Amino acid sequence: MEKVVIIGLGLMGGSIARDLKKLGNYHICGIDQNKTHAQEALQLGWVDDLVSIDKVADNHWVILAVPVNYLPSLAIEVLDRIHKDTIVFDMGSIKNPLCNAVKNHPNRSQLVAVHPIAGTENSGPSAAIHHLFKKKLTIICEPTSSCPQKLEKTIQLWKSLGARIHFMDAVAHDKHLAYVSHLSHISSFMLGKTVLEIEKDERQIFNLAGSGFESTVRLAKSAPPTWAPIFLENHENILQSLDEYIENLQQFRTLIFQQDEQQLSAIMYQCNHVGEILAGIALNNHQEP
Amino acid sequence: MEKVVIIGLGLMGGSIARDLKKLGNYHICGIDQNKTHAQEALQLGWVDDLVSIDKVADNHWVILAVPVNYLPSLAIEVLDRIHKDTIVFDMGSIKNPLCNAVKNHPNRSQLVAVHPIAGTENSGPSAAIHHLFKKKLTIICEPTSSCPQKLEKTIQLWKSLGARIHFMDAVAHDKHLAYVSHLSHISSFMLGKTVLEIEKDERQIFNLAGSGFESTVRLAKSAPPTWAPIFLENHENILQSLDEYIENLQQFRTLIFQQDEQQLSAIMYQCNHVGEILAGIALNNHQEP
Q1: Which letter, b or e, does each residue of B105-132 get, where b requires 16 or more Cβ atoms within 10 Å of its Cβ?
Q2: Which pLDDT tens digit goes with each residue over B88-130?
Q3: Do B220 and A275 touch (CB under 8 A)?
Q4: Interface contacts (A, B; CB < 8 Å)
């Protein structure tokens, strides 16, 4: 029986707890400052016990599943306290602030920086999903900074959850994620805001939201305590991606204003290429077990 | 056996052909300038015959399923030619240019202006979907301009396809659709463009496109020959919605730049309200047969 403590029992912490529990070989303790979330996770059976932070030394695994703004200081606190055999990994959506913060810590090699690209727009332990990580790309940043045996055990744990592992530089990770994930969330939040502002009569949204709106606005349901820290911690990359997005919208606006059908169509045909790439993703997800 | 001619055999024309055929009581002829689409629709069995425009007089029903920029002139040409018992309806995403164009036509009362809020990002007759209109909101604009008996028969036909009918003013329709549907498409096209521009190495998109990106960028696969005309014909409403969207993005950008976590969170909590509205839609779709 391996002992695990999970700090942060939201969607991500709750989902990994749920999956590890199902695998059978883990005794799982949970920590959450939010007492409602902690009690929920216990009642739902995702964790066996609730403990306090001074109990982390005692475990084979410490999993950090808190919002990204708490990660760097929490990682240092945990690395300060742990036994030499303990493995620590996080599940944060940005990696460079964390990797920078622990860079010179004497126990740096006991930490593995992990980002499973998985989630939903829902939050809290009751939103935890069985098999959330199955077939999902899971990125490990700066693998050479982790102890090889601890890295290998972490990879095995994630593979047992069904994840596909990919290594990446932390700086490159944060930049790519700004474009591919964080910008999508901002675009969706602002689309929701724009529609809510004009459609004072909600029945109109209710009635007219047919094809298209639901999928583009789905991410506007995402949890602010998760996403505000991501936008702030990764602000340099996000501001750059957002500026390019706004510039593209303004150019498209100009073409509509000028009634330039030919140029509008040419740009849309370029964008259609995204479809082929996504079809490749679907194929890849289908092929890899 | 009622005789139907469908002009435009793309996703929308193909889908209604397919559903009517299944109902059994219709002989369906098709017209499409695109010979590949016409032949495909014939081979797939969505239509019984291909005919030319001078054969429209001969039918009980004429269905206009062409891009919105062709609709006004085509509607006039068809109304000029038809028998007094023929019913004409269109399936266009914007309604005011059409309603304006036919306003003073002597046969105006034979036309019903219909917009089924249904579709996918795919195009052509091979993308036609059985039951595409089932449980979907279908808007009829300016119903009092149509002959009551012809309006009633049109409503019955759409109900036989499973649609839910809603009446609306054409000007209001075009404005609401700009916000709820057309803006979603532009936001998605430009998100695809921004990501394609930065991620020159497509493997990165391929690898990193996890939760979030696929749903927000799905509409970027939509067909330019359908959407360029919609953006141009509805340009006044779309420019207004686009300006408000860009303004919201710029305000959000400023808050990220100023590291104003409190205000960012407050705005995101407002946007979360979209989730409750969409949950209402899902419930409604579930309840109404």
Answers
A1: eebbbbbbbbbbbbbbbebbbebbbeeb
A2: 999 999 999 999 999 999 999 999 999 999 888 788 889 999 9
A3: yes
A4: 301
